[in-house]
Amino acid sequence: MGARKRIKADARKEANKSIAFAKLNNSPIAPRKMRLVADLVRGEEVNKALNILQHNAKEASNSLEKLLRSAIANWEQKNEDKNIEEETLYVKEIQVGSAGMLKRIQPAPQGRAHRIRKRSNHVTIVVDGKDAE
Fold first, then answer.
1. Full-model pTM
2. Which fold has domain 20-131?
3. How does strand 87-107 pair with strand 20-27?
């Protein structure tokens, strides 16, 4: 690793120490389906977001709810001096990116075969607090 790359990597690591986030890698749900649910909670207050995810019928909402709870726990861990009741936590950022694909074959008429791509995704949630003043 070159010097510039190392300096940039160290700066990125220092920036990540100050924010509370949670990552879910290789979730077996298609990124497009996960983004539909992620768009519902982006920018919302945490309790409202958890309520939305609990009452959503989509399968992706179960994974996102668990991930959001993890991000909240990470925020509590990093901000031990702050009280969660006094802070208004909100979903600052949520990113859904594509991960690897499982490539499968589906039989088709006349001896042919169709390619089936089973997509998966990576999700990152960043939680931040606003002072309730």
1. 0.85
2. Ribosomal Protein L22; Chain A (3.90.470)
3. unpaired
List the domain boundaries for the chain. Answer: 20-131
DSSP state letter for 122: E
Closest among 42, 103, 92, 33 to 63, alpha carbons compared: 33
Please give the Cα distance from 76 to 59 (Å, whole number).
27
**57-93 confidence digits (pLDDT tens):** 999 999 999 999 999 999 999 888 887 777 889 999 9
Q: 44 Cβ partners below 8 Å, 6+ apart?
A: 52, 90, 91
Q: Is 33 exposed, middle or buried (0-12, 13-18, 19+ CB in 10 A)?
A: middle
